[in-house]
Amino acid sequence: MSKRIKVLQLQPDYNVKAYAFADLAEQIVMSLPRQRYEVVAAFLKGEPAAGQPVSRAERSVYFGFGDGQLKGLRLRALWRLYRFCQQEQFDVVICNRFKPVNMLLQLNRWLRIPVCIGIAHNLGDYDRRYRQRQIRRLANRAWRFVGVSPAVRDELLSLRSGFTPDNTVAITNAIDIEEAESLLLSREEARREFGLACDVRVVGSIGRQVRVKDYPRLIRAFAQVAQSYPGARLLLIGEGRETPALKAEVARLGLEGKVLLPGALPNALRYVRAFDLWVMPSLAEGFPLAMMEAMCGRLPVIASDIPSMHELVAGAGGCLVPPADEAQLAQALANHLALPAVELRARGLRAYDYLCTHHAIDDYRQAYRELIERTLSANQGDCV
What we know:
Blueprint: E1 5-13, H1 24-31, E2 37-45, E3 59-62, H2 75-88, E4 92-96, H3 98-111, E5 115-120, H4 129-138, E6 143-147, H5 150-158, E7 168-170, H6 177-183, H7 187-193, E8 201-206, H8 215-226, E9 232-237, H9 243-252, E10 259-263, E11 277-280, H10 289-296, E12 301-304, H11 307-315, E13 319-321, H12 326-337, H13 341-358, H14 361-378
Parallel strand pairs: 1-2, 1-4, 2-3, 4-5, 5-6, 6-7, 8-9, 8-11, 9-10, 11-12, 12-13
């Protein structure tokens, strides 16, 4: 058998999920068959505790760097990473998020790894001028960059700082729909977890409760329609820096019992079918995996009309509202709460059908395989 292609996937933090349906780093690992690829997963910070999942890669490496070691010049961390890559002689390095990209841009001047792929997960990742200068100076023919949505790719290209149509592509996030569906509780089981009757209308969302998600606006918009729809409930699963403020807003508006904040729950996807309607009022997103999880549950969706969500939500027949527009969000909620159950289900099924057609996990895996093979072929003269 010919020598296998040796791939390193480098991530800033240990974050392997128990289920791989939306763990896109693991989906990349799973896209590379072992008979052709040898894949090593490496994490700059963190490691699994007893019983926590590990990567499906053949080997996992945990550098165990602290926060201080990954700030500033990072000389010690760069040296360790350099020695590791030098010893392993990788053919391909896949860098998730900016910090690994930043480190490999510097190190590959000497390592000369034939293929380096940098994945940008969020809009604004390269807003800072020094990051743009680094790309312009160091992104040679070994480098390819991936935006997780067309909006992220287009933003990278607009910077005119080393990202070009030849080295920058969009590989849109996807989800393993079959695995995700297998994890969902039934409507009755999910509602039982929160003490919700089957005949109430439940507006829901799952996500980190941080400022960019704009959940206070959703709570205020819900308050505007709650009196007209006394059987409606708002269920926000998650926690974060904004959780105390959300609880205070619920109390201020007198919505105790109508707005439920159960905190973060393990495998929160399981509860999607407790909802009748999914709402995502974010001010910014890279590409919303949570939205795809909602579509797996056959839910109609309301979302902010921002570049990273527009195509997905519009294609799925969802409702787009201007970001930070409380009045229009309240109107969208009222319009959906007034619909008969059969119409809500029909809209949810349309969203599910769109997801299956446009965001299948097999297409995502194939896109990464083809990017690696194509770039290796183009740079084969640099291979060891």
